[in-house]
Design brief:
The chain contains 14 helices and four strands. With 286 residues, it is α/β, with parallel strands linked by helices. It folds into two domains: 108 residues, no CATH class; 175 residues, no CATH class. It has a four-stranded mixed sheet with strand order 1-2-4-3, with helices on both faces. α5 packs across α8.
Amino acid sequence: MRCTVADSLDEDFYTTVVKEVYERIGPDLESELRFVVVEDEEDCEKIVSESDTEEGLLEVCEESGSSSFSVSDKSYVLIVTEDRFSKDNLKALEGLIAHELMHSVQREEGLEDEIEDVAVSFSDTVVRELEERGVSPEDSVDFISDVMGTMIFCLKDLYVNTELVEAGFSEELASYYRLILDTEGLVSAPEIYSNDENLGEVEEALKFVLEFLPAWIPFRRDDARGGDIEESIRQGYEANIPLTSDSINRISELYLEEFGRSEEFMNKFFEKLLSLSYRVMDDKLD
């Protein structure tokens, strides 16, 4: 593992924090791992070498924010501090690093491929069900691409956060999401009850619901640290999209009763989310 820190940041501090989190989570990673820590997107060009550019690191750095990705046999964890993740918010910084690093760990284990394979298997079913609702094949393709991408992202985060809670990162993870909520708040809910039959609005409604779903459900199993996060998020959901409250409860119940690394759970999880999509769609298109 190596860590590259932008000149604008305290190299010793960030390198130390990265190493401490890495020792708790990732020492068994087989792939070559590199952390890149920058303050903002402007730091990216200054820190990325020509060889990195060939591997797509610059593009990710400039467009994606904090993230985890792999190129061939190399794994990257990109941390963008954004003037928030600093010494003043150490626990939140540790939570961010742990979250992105765990994505690398689970990707190497093959979990992300398993999730994507299960999601792909839904495509034909979704197309048929959309056709029954009068959605054109062209619109179906776009809808499936956007919605399935959102659901895959949600489930990956759910697995990551669950493993982090089980590994003793509850405080760090809660601090990470609390900082995001304190500085950004919930994303504004889309207007899904207009007369315009725009599937894009249904997609945005689902994205709104799933944005922070993985932030609080993992705490429900055996930890109370996420209680205030859950309350803030649920109030935001119910105030903006009352229709989703029951569906969120069903997803939460499924997680508490059946969560596991199995195709059966993944299938049921996607079914619940698709059911929510259809409920929003049917309410809108009736």
